[in-house]
Amino acid sequence: MRTVRFDSRDHYRNKVYPSPFHSRQKELNGLKEWSRWFDYLSVPAYTCPTMEYFSGRNTCGVFDITPMVKHLVSGPDALAYMNRLVTRDVAKIKPGRVGYAVWCTDEGQVIDDGTIFHLREGVYRLCSQEHQIDWMMINANGFDVNIIEDTHDVAGLALQGPTSCATLKRMGLTGIEDLTPFGLRYFDLDGIELMVSRTGYTGDLGYELWIDAGYAELLWDRVFAAGELHQIQPMGSDALEMLRIEAGFILAGADFMPAQHTVRPTHTRSPFELGLGWLVDFKKPVFNGRRALLAEKENGSRYALVKLDIEGNKPADSSYVYSSTNKNIGWITSAMWSPSAKKNIALATVETPHGAVGEEMLVEIYYQRELKWSRVKAKARVVKDAFFDPPRRRQTPPADW
Amino acid sequence: MTDTIIIGGGHNGLVCAAYLAKAGHKVTVLEARDKVGGAAVTREFAPGFKVSACAHLLYLLDEGIQKELALASHGLSMAATDLATMAMDEQGQHIRISGARIEGANVTDADQAAMTEYHRYMSRFAAVLGGLNNRVPPRLGTSTGKDLRSLARLGWNIRKMGKHDMRDFLRITGINVYDVLQEEFDNELLKGALSVDGVLGSFLGTRSNNSVFCALHRMSQGGRYSLPEGGMGAVSNAIAAAATQYGAEIRTSSPVKRLLLDFDQVSGVELENGEQLMAKTVVSSADPKTTFNQLLGPQHLEAGFANKIKHLRSRGCVAKLHLALDSLPVFTGLGETQSGNRLLIAPSMNYVERAFNHAKYGEYSEHPVIEITLPSIHDDSVAPQGQHVLSANVQWAPTDLKMGWAEAKHGFTEAVIDVIARYAPDIRSSILHTEMLTPEDIEQQFLIGGGHWHHVELAMDQFLMMRPVPGAAQYASPVDGLWLCGAGSHPGGGVMGCAGRNAANAILKTNRG
Ligand SMILES: Cc1cc2nc3c(=O)[nH]c(=O)nc-3n(C[C@H](O)[C@H](O)[C@H](O)COP(=O)(O)OP(=O)(O)OC[C@H]3O[C@@H](n4cnc5c(N)ncnc54)[C@H](O)[C@@H]3O)c2cc1C
Question: What ipTM did this prediction achieve?
Fold first, then answer.
């Protein structure tokens, strides 16, 4: 499938498409279960989520990121456009670099988060969690830019884990080991342009591979062939979910409601409330939400997003959070037992002024044993750093495995 | 260096300048044209013939402003006051409407009774609306005491009308003038004329919602029609004189090209000739689309706000016809003394609605609604002795005519004169000169984007705290240092002055801290 042609009048008949990797996924999908990720079929788990999770931490795992919404922004005003759109200073993302970003409504409420790839001088790819083309077109008013959504034209594979670099080296990507975190580089794969970025959603050593959708299978086959000796495994979205929570990454729709999908105005979140204040650069004269965020900075935020280290081993999914004096102050948005950190971890939203690093809280966990429900109020502590943050994530060149 | 630059010397810009100067600000007004006044201006359109080139009837000008700026002492006087509205009939069976009183051959007691009641409640509702004209609108979605009190006052003013009137107020302001008049009256000619109040100047038909609201707006300052001596320009000139006396500097032929920014704040303006003038406060009386899209540039705004500005409704629909006449035209069945009134060609509500239909599809109406004044009957200064000026607002003539105005203008002009000639059969023989200003001409000559009477459509969703859009409805724009003071702001267009004064008050309050 290619970029949706709205004049074809057919796009609405099909809602979910096979990914360009589908033929390969189908062979490996032992559980025969499929989920929907926007326009595409996605694999929740090929065999066992936990095993797939461990491939991401101990060897390397492959996850299909084609469904991620992708846009190309180019033209004389591309930088100015991007800078008005997102809260951070895009001028600091040099060609060949990638940056994480959020963008807001005028009210300073987060619409979505995503990554900006500075593909070539003045040409940007914006990957987002949600469909954004409407908002991006609205934002084009007054700018000399070309904007296209090219989600369907580009196939993407995330290759994550300690042996990912070795796999790519074996694949013939000479010099890949020199790529620093958040760098991107182009390679030749049998005459086809392959873009590789050292990015990912796992908080580990890892890469994302981008190729014209017509060559998706070629890429898949080459990656798996090269990875065989490095214990490569296909990875489903369940495993990725565990990896991202351990890394402390937030997910739109899970840890916050995208502002444009929110009906009740108080249910949106600002970057500050998501712990993303570092992405807000007031040194830019204008960006969406700037005035509101300046005011928020002065007057204070309503919520804080915190990482919790919880006592015990019962995952705190959907739990209420209480202050040490037993006042209900928030709720858990993502939770798991972390096999790598060996901790019971969670992301939570709490009302300010709660949420300071080190603050003790209580989490009310309901859990089931052989269908019998029990409840425990577990002690929890707000921690600062990612739950799992191995040095190899940043090491360049990565160690050879 | 001046403290404040005002872009545009229309009457609102001048009022704002006068109040700011009066309060001690150093103010410079920059007007693009060679004369002040904007759409409230008198121009010579043929040798010896002068006309109010856009607005011709004065019915909204705020009394407080007239007094506070002592406009009479600056030369403002009325050539005529309390003009009646004549609902024109081709056969000469006209109806004279003066306040609640109606007279005419076919007017029944029932018509009069209905009119008395209609006038009573419309005046009452209009007064509630008018009570807001001199207020800076409250902000939406805030909980500051001031904003809440302001909203509460509006609620209270509605509530204290009593149960019956309150219910009717809430009911009819949301519906359309056709249904309301249909409920009250039987007389087609009377209904036709009254329905015009709901649509004149707006891109609405009689059956469109907001038309009752527009009628109330028209009556919100009392609803009495006057003609200023020397034409509408006399109003602007008097305000300019007051402003100058308070120390404001007014520069004509000084079109502003763009706003200058210092980081995130407005720091001044650049003129078309390249000259830069710096000021901490810049107030624009140009329409909101011109101000934000052309003078500032949408890229300097946050996208949500810019998008709201982009989608403001501002399609103009009124053309202006000026005739220089060799003699006073004779309207069938209308004595000379009555010809000096406000003459309305709108014989029925269906006529009005049909005239609107064309505009919806980008065509002009060959049978438009026409509002005629003959100011020379009351004012010797506008035409040579014995000769006359006819000034007419003609609706509907959409700005974005499918055919293009260059091609259509002649045919349209002839069609309009033909319609007038049905009421004044000999008029063509006395025409010395004709000037037709299409909305496109108005856009170009008066620098109003879309050529819209109110700069942007006057409607409940573009009124009060939503005028022109939330985020700029308290005259301050989202860009620090940039303010609005024209018809695009609350309480809208017409020669009123309230937007200019409210803006000045808001600026003074902010600068006082
Ligand atoms: C055809 C028509 C008939 C009307 N009839 C009536 C009527 O009978 N009675 C009535 O009360 N109202 C009438 N109105 C409405 C009334 O004329 C306007 O609403 C009112 O005059 C607006 O005043 P303003 O000062 O807000 O804006 P304007 O009068 O539009 O003033 C804005 C000023 O800004 C100037 N300007 C714009 N851009 C620039 C720039 N870049 N640099 C410098 N200067 C700039 C313009 O030249 C203009 O002088 C009519 C309007 C129209 C179009």
Answer: 0.93
